[in-house]
Amino acid sequence: MLVLASASPRRKELLSLLVKEFEVLPADIDETPALHEKAEDYVVRMAVEKAKAASIKYRQKADCSSTTFFLASDTSVVVDACILGKPTSLEESRSMLRRLSGRSHQVITSLCLCNLEQEHVATRCVVSDVCFREISDVEIDQYWRTNEPQDKAGSYGIQGLGAIFVRSISGSYSAVVGLPLYETAQLLAQFGIHSLEEMSHE
């Protein structure tokens, strides 16, 4: 059994391309970056903590299986070594998108896969470069009113209307969306879950 430690509908949709059956078990953790913590270290730590928290939560179930694996991911938008989280207001969204306007930034997505006992923990980190065109304040305000940026790191969703801001991308598109498919498939294979074999079974 595979458990996705995320409430993200985007990650659920992407994982369903690789695995037919899995459970969804979101894990609440403190997502505050540590002082002077590097962005890549932060996103990997977040994925590990989510996976471990989900495994602890799952262990409380009476019918839990020791052959269950837990997959977690975390995505951060990084510009000038600063991690941009999810905006809580229009002002925060304006600040983020103005900062990203007309330049490149990094989207860092991590993965963690572990077993129930947390004896085996594997991680990956994927860095993609995204270049934005110039964005006007009017566009930022109009975009906010679509509700799309409100639950997105960096205040935009590349899989939605936010794609109109993206001039180019170098790296993994699925990682920018929230779950890098290539790296996820590689990680699952290490734990004996082979995506093509899974999806080809009737």
TrEMBL record:
Q: Where in the cell is the protein located?
A: Cytoplasm
Active-site residues (renumbered): D74
**Keywords for this protein:** Cytoplasm, Hydrolase, Nucleotide metabolism
Cofactors (names)? a divalent metal cation
Q: Provide the GO MF annotations for this entry.
A: dTTP diphosphatase activity; UTP diphosphatase activity
Q: Which SUPFAM superfamilies match?
A: ITPase-like
Spell out the InterPro entries in the cross-references: ITPase-like_fam, Maf-like
Primary location recorded for the protein, binned into one broad class: cytoplasm
Q: Which reaction does it catalyse?
A: UTP + H2O = UMP + diphosphate + H(+); dTTP + H2O = dTMP + diphosphate + H(+)
EC?
Answer: 3.6.1.9
Site (described: Important for substrate specificity)? R10, T75, Q159
Q: What does the record list as GO biological process?
A: nucleotide metabolic process
Q: Can you cite an annotated GO cellular component? A: cytoplasm
- Function recorded in the entry: Nucleoside triphosphate pyrophosphatase that hydrolyzes dTTP and UTP. May have a dual role in cell division arrest and in preventing the incorporation of modified nucleotides into cellular nucleic acids.
Q: Which family does it belong to?
A: Belongs to the Maf family. YhdE subfamily.
| Name used for this protein in its record | dTTP/UTP pyrophosphatase
Q: Write down the species.
A: Marinomonas rhizomae
